[in-house]
Specification:
The chain has about 260 residues and is an alpha/beta fold. Helices cover about 40% and strands about 15% of the residues. The longest helix is centred in the last third of the chain and has 18 residues, at about 185-205. The two termini are about 30 Å apart. The structure holds 2-phosphoglycolic acid.
Length: about 260
Amino acid sequence: MTRPWPRRPRLVAGNWKMHKTAPEAAALARELVMLVGGARPRCEIALCPPFPALSAVGEALRGSPLHLGAQNLHPATHGAFTGEVSGLMLAALGCRFVIVGHSERRHGMGENDELVAQKLRAALRDGLTPIVCVGEILAEREADRTAEVLVRQTQAAYAGLDSAAALATVIAYEPVWAIGTGRVATVEQAREAHQILRATLDRVVGQGTAARTGILYGGSVNAANAAALFADEEVDGALVGGASLESASFWRIASAASSATEAG
Ligand code: PGA
């Protein structure tokens, strides 16, 4: 099983979604490795390319402090599951992270809370750090049901896990209305959601867990708005979609997270 983080992690992860062929992805990874140079960034940085590019990106990242991550996994280790990929396979490719329960899978591919919980456990079993996505859709926010949704999704994902297991995960609060829309949550909205997640985690898993669990914000994070989000002590980093597809903007976001670590 994955080891718990030694401290509350600060992480910036790029979710490349269904973008970039293997050669394009490797080129972007090489640009980022160049930007890091010899420096050791003060935050963790992960790149999550599509499955066919994992191997090429892993090769490009070799020897660098950047981590490799995947966007999805199947709960089983192997079997008759045509078109699926297991955590075991991802770990064997050098993946450290895997995104679990992204809203595009919950709402676009019919993944429910139960399946997300299975995937979270499979990731831990296979030695991967799951980035567990939760978040409300616009209609839920407008109906004042944000807290209810966040509590339900977190409870379903974490019920039955002990503190050590939970500490080996990262949560990403991703309001669905903010994803790919250019409409970023305010710092207050992010803080409030993260506080709800922390309270739920402590209740479900055990008191004291949340203070040491990293919670990222995701949804229209870019080079211009990242620093303000990271300045809030509830926000431990970001899951970045669109702005991670280009090295300069992603690097500026990662640098903002590094600076926030130094300041904090
Ligand atoms: P976005 O995507 O940054 O393009 O809004 C975030 C995500 O889906 O993880």
